[in-house]
Every structure is written in structure tokens, then in C-alpha cells.
């Protein structure tokens, strides 16, 4: 049976991931204080930045006033005549040392970030307990360090403790945590502090997606290969499977795949015809399937003309060719009291006009046709009760 100990490390990527994808910068959070003691984000009490009315949020977050809410009959409700004064700020972008220009791709994981520069090198910074910085050490760094031995790289993807880069020739190299075989080099090491070549993927890869226990590669031919954990069906073998330390074909997806995202213990893929299928863990509606675990791909209902997919943790969101956004899984529209949804929910006020989509932890961000950025979900990474259900402009 696969080692499940690495699962406890998955906390969810914070707002930094979203900001990095849409802004190209890391995020530094200022501290916030409240005038009364409240356990933020507890099962029965939380604070909220605006009054909830019929599942929507009135107004936009101002950072000045929040409301105490308690859960009643499964719904979050404001406590009568109770307000909490908030001081401090929300997150603001800060420049990364040595990376003020020339960045062509960026990815953020759980506590560490990597960027590809125009010269094809990869630089990472942050936590490094599993070798995720790729510089041959397990020492954290607050400034970017160069990943060993990588040149002519085009893109990078970062998971919980693992990172992978795709070269301009379509070859994949990975480094970091390998406790479930997610690096895919066929070795038995538990971690790789420097990049290793992924078995069978020396060319022809279009995209790679990494999460805590599995990695999937989208081939230029439209095929899909995955390595890593199979305990919850991430390898789509039709039954509970052992981990695979080399990439394997995903049955039914050897061609015709347009996009892929690996979440926590599940995978979702977009077909070139615009439909979506998911497989793996489904206890929060991640797969939209009939079972708590789906060992084979299940079509996600109600989705068509999907152009791209994004996800993290137990939530996924699809972007349609018309620019609409639909999300499903755990709290897909933020902490609105609706709970998990196994059917895609339209993001409020985003039926059209979105051009790209990114997810991180409990946050979602979209770039609109006019170049503006909107977000919804948790507003403060350390305070999950502060959330926005209606997309707010950044």
C-alpha cells in the first residue's frame, strides 16, 4: 500500500500562488488585528468582510470593517449588531530580488516558488525541506537560487514539495519530494535535491502539472501520462493501484487532451472537444462522479466549450471559450456556506470576458479582456473566514 504520510503535508497553496500567476510577483502579507478575540475560520464561528445576502456579498472589501458570523442550519449568518474593527492591510506585491525582468514562466507551491528566465535557467526560493529549490541542498532561501543543471527551459510547474520544468524541446525534469514516485524517473529515492530526467519524457511534452502526490504530463500529440500515487485512483487504472515511479498512459486519454490539472488526490483533463473528465478522490465533489473515489475518469456534467482548467487542493475551475468560469469541489465559490458542490457552479458575474484563470489554496483569480484582474475566495491566507463570493477587482 502506498505511503500516505505525505498527504498530511498538503495544506493548500495560499494567495501567493494566484498573485504569482496573474501578476508575476510574490506576495507579502501584512499583519491584521481584531478588536475582540475570535477563532477565525472555526467550524462554528468566523469573521467576514461584508454582509452576506442570499449567498452574495454586498460591497467590496475595504479592509476597515468585518462582521462576526456564526453557522446556523448549515449557513453562515451575521451576528446581530456585531462588528469587528480591523487594522492592518491585505497582501501587496513585492519585487523578487534579481527577477525584476526577463521572467517567462512562474509557478508557486506550498511555501516555495520557481521562475524560468529568458535565458532558459530556473530559479527557486522559499522552503526547501524536500529539495524543492533544486540546488542540491535542503536549506531554505529567501532569495532565488539557481536550479542545478537546467538550461533551455520553457515552463515550470510547482506542487506541494515537488517541481518540474519542461524544456524548449519538450523534455521534462523534476526535483524535490518523490515519496510516491511523482518525479517519475524510475528510481527509489524519497527525494531528489537536484533535477532528474523523467523516464520516457525526453521530448514532445507540452505541459506538466504537479501536486502533492502525482504529476501529469500533457504530450504535444494530445496524450496524457501520469506518475506518482495511485491509492485514490490518480492513475485512472480502474482500481486502487500502487504508486508508479514512471509515467503511465491514462486509459481513454492517449489522444485528444487539451489541458490537465493535478489537484490533491485527483486529476482533471480537458478534451479538445471542450468537455472535462476527472478521476481520483471525490469526497468533496472534486470529480463530479457517483463514488467517493473514482478509479476511472468521470465526465463532469454541464460543461462544454471548455478552453482551460485550473485547480488546487480539492477544487477545480473551468474557463470556457466564451470567457465564462465554472467551479466545483470544496467551497468552489468561496466560504459562502454552500459547502462542497459536485456540479459545476457558475462564478458570479463571470459568464463571459475572462481570458485566463489561476487558482491557489482558497482563492481564484481571472484576467479579463480589458487586462483587469478579479478574484474571489479567501482574502487573507491566515484567516480563511475572510472571503469574497463575488469577484472583486484587484
Q: Decide which structural class fits the backbone.
A: mainly beta
Number of H- or I-type helical stretches = 1
What's the number of extended β-strand segments?
32
Q: How big is the Rg?
A: 20 Å
| Assembly classification | single chain
Report the portion of residues in β strands. over 45%
Largest sheet: 4 strands, antiparallel
Distance between the termini: 45 Å
Sequence of strands across the biggest β-sheet: 2-7-6-3
Return residue spans where pLDDT drops below 50 for at least 5 consecutive residues: 1-71, 74-91, 380-386
Write the layout of secondary structure elements.
Layout: H1 15-23, E1 27-28, E2 32-34, E3 45-48, E4 52-53, E5 56-57, E6 65-72, E7 75-88, E8 92-93, E9 103-108, E10 112-117, E11 122-126, E12 141-146, E13 153-158, E14 162-167, E15 172-177, E16 191-197, E17 205-210, E18 214-219, E19 224-228, E20 244-249, E21 257-262, E22 266-271, E23 276-281, E24 293-299, E25 306-312, E26 315-320, E27 325-329, E28 341-346, E29 354-360, E30 363-368, E31 373-380, E32 383-393
Antiparallel strand pairs: 1-8, 2-7, 3-6, 4-5, 6-7, 9-10, 10-11, 11-12, 13-14, 14-15, 15-16, 17-18, 18-19, 19-20, 21-22, 22-23, 23-24, 25-26, 26-27, 27-28, 29-30, 30-31, 31-32
